[in-house]
Amino acid sequence: MCLRTFIHIRGMAALHSCLVCFCLAHLCLTARCMNSSSSDHHGKTPLYVGGFFTFDETVSATAKLPQVAMKAIEHINNLSFLLDDYELRLRWGYTKGTGAGALSVLHDLVFKGPPVVLAWGPFNDREGFVLSEIAATYNLVQCYTGITFFEQGDPRYPLTIQLAEDERAVDSIRLSFSNYMGWKRVAIIFLDVDSIRREVDNMYRVLTEGGIHVLTVEPVKDISDAYQQLQNLKKHDARIIFIRVPLGSALIFFCQVYKQKLFGPKYVWIIPKYYYGPWWRLRYQNLDCNDEEIRQVVEHVIGFESPDVVQHRKSFSMNGLYQPVDGATEVFVFARISPKLRYTMFGIVSMCIVFGLGVFFVNNKYKQRKVMRITSPPLNNLIIIGGLLHYASIFLHGTEVADLDNFSTIVLCHARVAFTAIGTSLALGALFMKTYRIHIIFNKAVSKLRRVRGLPDSKLIISVAVLVFIDILVQTVWVLTEDTNVVEVELHRSLNPLHPEKELYTVTMMKYCQSQNQLYFAIVIYATKSLLLIFGVFLAWGTRRITIPQLNDSKYLAISIYTVALATVLGFPALEVSSNNVSLYFLVLCMSIVIPNTLVLCMLFLPKIWQLFKNNDDAVSISLMASESRDSKLYDTGNDVHSQRLYKELQKVDLPPYRSRTRHDTHTLGTTHFKCTPI
Fold first, then answer.
1. Alpha-helix residue ranges (DSSP H) falling in 84-190
2. Which of 4, 63, 614, 624 has the least CB density, counted as fewest CB within 10 Å?
3. So what's the pLDDT on residue 146?
4. How is domain 167-326 classified at the CATH fold level?
């Protein structure tokens, strides 16, 4: 029993068409027949009908077709009301499925034996095209039983009567069945001849107007060489394929289908309605495939002939297998940050922002107190503002771009870069400027015991402003000169494990911004920040032994810089590794910002706040810490008379009220006239 699936609903249309054909032949040729034929012993005038049968008795599926035809003629002859004084007789021959064989039979029918008034057949298109054109030259009515439809009024076939139903009449059934099965993507492959191309054009129109997407239409010039067309079907991932190939060439074609591995449960081949009976057994040509290979291909073939298929379609099954699909169905979703992670980090960052605002309030409210004044409140404000911008950037990075249009996504991308870059310049720039001033005052003063030109807050703030200006300039040029586009990339895809046979894939996408020269702009930003960080690490190392016992500000500055450097060194590789996991990327980014940022604020301001409420201004003193390193003599004050004198002078200093610095303010170390500048 063949395992193939075949919807084969055959009506009586062919028989009725034959009867009409015989009647037409009788009406058209009665006069000639009566004049040219004599009555037989029954007193009836014989009308000879020529029969063209493709296969001989070696093909079991069609071996009895001549006997069936003679039985039908006998039945017609017994109808007394139809032919009156005439009777039909059959003269026939085997065409062997070739045009030459069909012409040989035609020659015998015309020039040998009694003349025929009508020709029935053939079924094969290749024979039919030849016979229908040649038969007209002998005034022979050709009842064409093939399936390729001739256009009405074609001058090449004036005496051809089409018996088979027009293949185009089934196109609406194909559409209905495809919609019922849920198939929205199909392909068409056909033998490229005029008559079939017209049918394919109509099929394409019906399918597309019915909402079916035709992936590709592949015409085949030589049915024995369809390699390229089959490869194109593979490239388009066509699963539901309509074939329009004459029956005589079907096995040749499906043998190539087998060799290209376009068969199995994933593929459905929908054949024309004229593929009758066990057509896959009609092996009248040598094939490169055996019966078992052909059987594997046709195991998932569907065919239908009648509109009745619409009423019977619910009985369709693929031999108990799952319903085939028209291809892999991809459901696109954008990668999203875990809601729990996002809201947790937003909560933590919100508390950090409250802490930063509190520090900002204390720094400005008590800026006249000696504890705060000697640490330069304006630079402290810049550090706090930079930290707040860093915290704010986390909210920007936590915003889902999947919910935004392209324009809003581009604005968000630039805002992320701007907040991070400017925040870094403000926080690190001010932090490094404070460290630089400590380096200048103590390093040079102690080592060379000379006057040091003043470094007022205004000059240091200008230096930080230059860094911020560079960031703004780079960002502005980037926005104005570059066309930023939103790019969607596939991260991964996963098959629905509950219904793998449906090939439902969830494709996770990620959306990000991209511009042609963004690499160069990124290099400029990273280069400035890297140089700033390297400079800060150098200063921190140079001032590592300088302390103010009551505040220990220099030590905390160095620790802050080391923390930022460590977070940067560890953070960038971690971000690169986790770039394809949005939740992990967001977590690493938050940790890389929150931890060093919060630690810097705590290091710089918590000791000051503690001293602010613990001691009064008179308890604040300044000193140099003696070096404990044997190999360093820069801060060794044990045997240095000048350093001892400097130490005593620093202990006696009385800081004046805080005021803005002017260009006349100076630091005088190593003399009795010492003015203290905020550090």
1. 99-111, 125-135, 171-181
2. 614
3. 66
4. Rossmann fold (3.40.50)
